[in-house]
């Protein structure tokens, strides 16, 4: 539903996720935890996006759900993503 919106939106669920945690989710859903991912606590950087505009009813899902949806899309359209499979 467009709801009369214009412009560019950083649409997020406003929940922070670290790069490490995001990689863990991607590894889980795309590689069945086959890749070893090591956490690095030496570098601290916060590049979180937050939604600052309102006026729309769309609810952004949790990261786990969004990644699973992305994986389902990739699997359904394998010809577009040969480098991921």
Overview of the molecule:
With 85 residues, this protein is mostly helical. The chain has one domain (19-84). It is built from two helices and no strands. It has helices at residues 19-31, 63-76. α1 (19-31) packs parallel to α2 (63-76). It is flat and about 45 Å long. The model has no long low-confidence stretch (mean pLDDT 88).
Stretches where pLDDT falls below 50 for ≥5 residues?
Answer: none
Helix content: 25-40%
Question: What is Rg?
Answer: 16 Å
Mean pLDDT: 88
Structural class assignment: mainly alpha
N- to C-terminal distance? 33 Å
State which percent range the strand residues make up: under 5%
Count the E strands: 0
Present the secondary structure layout.
Blueprint (H helix, E strand, L loop, with lengths): L18 H13 L31 H14 L9
Helix pairs in contact: 1-2
Outline of the structure:
This protein is mostly helical and 85 residues long. 32% of the residues lie in helices and 0% in strands.
Which short descriptors sum up this protein?
85 residues, mainly alpha, 32% helix
């Amino acid at each position: 539903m467009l709801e009369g919106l214009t412009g560019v939106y950083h649409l997020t669920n406003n929940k922070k996720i670290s790069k490490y945690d995001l990689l863990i989710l991607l590894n889980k859903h795309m590689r069945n935890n086959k890749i070893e991912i090591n956490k690095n606590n030496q570098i601290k950087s916060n590049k979180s996006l937050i939604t600052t505009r309102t006026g729309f009813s769309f609810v952004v899902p949790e990261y786990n759900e969004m990644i699973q949806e992305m994986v389902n899309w990739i699997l359904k359209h394998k010809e577009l993503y040969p480098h991921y499979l």
